[in-house]
Amino acid sequence: MNFRDNILEIDGQEIEMEFPIRRAKRINDLAVVIFDLTDKVPRSSQYQNCRAFDLKANHVWTAEHPTNGNTDYYIDFMEKNKLWNFAGFVCEIDFRNGKLIDAQFTK
């Protein structure tokens, strides 16, 4: 699996995404994508930027955030597939459904 700008490549198939891709990782049979923060994102609402797609590019889930603040968005993957969140949380997500399992505040 590869990506550039807003193009995600899964098994040779290129899929155009809505936003530029910051990071993407294959986890089980999903492409888990963290989108970059862009000017297209409204600043008045939470950015739901971690999404999973099946291998045919169908949207499966959007990851929950640890807060309901409008500055909340995911930045990167960490070890053991945990996610780093801009609000200062290390988050564990259930990759079957995008539900937040645990969030540890680090700031």
What can you see in these coordinates?
- With 107 residues, this protein is an all-beta fold.
- The chain has one domain.
- Helices cover 0% and strands 47% of the residues.
- The chain is built from no helices and eleven strands.
- Strands 4-5-6-7 form a four-stranded antiparallel β-sheet, with no helix packed on it. A four-stranded antiparallel β-sheet has the order 8-9-10-11, with no helix packed on it.
- The mean pLDDT is 92.
- How many strand units? 11
Class derived from helix and strand content: mainly beta
Cα(first) to Cα(last) distance is 33 Å
Task: Name the average pLDDT.
Answer: 92
Pfam family, one: DUF7957
InterPro entries: DUF7957 (IPR058263)
Task: Summarize the topology.
Elements: E1 2-4, E2 7-10, E3 13-16, E4 21-27, E5 30-35, E6 50-53, E7 59-62, E8 74-77, E9 83-85, E10 89-93, E11 100-105
Antiparallel strand pairs: 1-2, 2-3, 4-5, 5-6, 6-7, 8-9, 9-10, 10-11
Pfam family, one: DUF7957
InterPro entries: DUF7957
List keywords for this structure.
11 strands, mainly beta, DUF7957
